[in-house]
Amino acid sequence: MRARGETDDGWKWKLIWADGLAGVTLAAYAVPVALAYATLAGLPPVVGIYGYMLGGLAYALLGSSRHLAIGPTSAISLLVGASIAPMAAGDPARLVQVASLVALLVAGLAVTAWALRLSTLTSFVSDTILLGFKAGAGISIAVTQLPSALGVPGGGDHFVERVATLGHQVGGTNPVVLAVATGALALLLLGDHLLPGRPVALVVVVLSIVATTVLGLHDRGVATVGAIPAGLPTIGLPGIRARDVDGVEALAAACLLLAYVESVSAARALASKHGYEVDVRRELLALGGANLLVALGHGYPVAGGLSQSAVNEKAGAMSRMALVVASVTLGVSLLFLTGLLRNLPKAVLAAIVLVAVKGLIDLREIGRLRRVSRLEFRVAIIALVGVLVLGILKGVLLAVVASILLLLHRAAVPHVAVLGRIPHTTRFSDLGRNPDNERTPGVCICRVEGPLLYFNVDHVLREMLKHVDTQPEAVRLVVCDLSTSPYADLAGARMLTRLSSELTARSVVLRLAEGHSTVRDILRAEGLDARVGPISRRISVADAIEAFERAGVA
Known about the structure:
It is a single chain. It is built from 21 helices and seven strands. The strands form two sheets. A five-stranded mixed beta sheet has the order 4-3-5-6-7. The protein has a two-stranded antiparallel ribbon with strand order 1-2. It has two domains: 8-407, no CATH class; 416-550, Transcription Regulator spoIIAA (2-Layer Sandwich), CATH 3.30.750. 63% of the residues lie in helices and 5% in strands. The chain has helices at residues 8-40, 46-62, 74-88, 92-115, 127-150, 159-169, 175-194, 200-215, 242-274, 280-296, 306-314, 321-336, 346-357, 363-372, 374-390, 392-412, 457-469, 490-505, 517-525, 529-532, 541-550; strands at 70-71, 303-304, 416-421, 428-430, 443-448, 477-481, 509-513. Helix 17 (457-469) links the parallel strand 5 (443-448) and strand 6.
């Protein structure tokens, strides 16, 4: 924050210094994480650095968040790796080509969504679904990294197969590899606890390279990443074949969904902390630009992640210029420092991934969800199990479908409350929640807590008639409180007409109270006011009862 009386030049240099330091810190964090995530995706490790470098440059130009950092993420890395491996038939160059094609399609979809103003579509993916999905993805990612941490070959195309294979191979664990992984894991966890937001992983990488070189750990079965090509990525379109596009369309859509949800969540959290707003629609354009540049640089899909963004923010970033500094630093590293990474143990990369994904498995929040809402807890578990059993791509799609089904379920069976008068007032509230409320003799007051739509009108009609039938006294007046029904379609209006007819046949009067303007418009257009009297926002429940009693119908 700018100090009182600080000159423009002083403030400018303060910004430059803060963003410069944050950018170098972010680059130091990104190098080991990028290598680890690219390995998780089954791609050459250097491809991960391309993602951070090029994605950050594009986002700095197009994004709206001051702190969001763009790069590969754990979930997208696993999703891409698991989905494109069968298409590459073991050819590393082909694998990179297909991964770049996915990034290109993500860019195209993101820009299309931006142009069509579809930024609200992610609202259909609930936090509950994401909680279960992330936990499933975290467990799945952890299982893929355990073979590298144990020094065994691993294998299997799906979670259950991987676990079974690992169970058979665990007896052949290489103790030296396990010691390297355990040591790295301990240092990383200790660093997370004592030095949060600092590039501890880079220190661990340096120490492991020195140890491997000095102690000759290659000869004791410790696998390393090997030669990493030096130089900046070449820019050009990935090879495109029609059958390849058909094979990765669903994957690209899933990557965009994950990328956008994760990016916007992280950007909003940091913007709220620092008192500014992010433009969620512009974030779609920024993601499109970032993935386009990454695709041209032969990388794979990137997103804004909370972990790397937190590093950027805690390092003191004050603008997106920190991403430019990070990209330049990574470019210099690619030109001059890649040879130093030859002896980096793969077990250390596995440890980095394991520490990174522990934040995906939020057991405390899952436990809290079980206490608060059993229904949402079950949905989260469905998403979790779906990722493990069906795989991460189908798990993403299942999570989206589950989100929509949960939304439809809530809309299809809205609660219909019976209201009673709050003692000594003219206001009414739910009798079920407030048993001390007073019933009005001969009157049943119902409130539909949701919109009146074609797929819920039968449920609402049944509930209202059930409440009328179960009143302790004969009912002469039914008041329908519409204050919590923000919308009604034609089926909703006709349901109220049916309700009026049913009640009239029983010599019961129906009155409506406190309808929203959009609801009133369609009810009047359907001619309901001729059957139930005036439909007005100004008519309260108390007014409807008083008018009924004053008319002498009672």
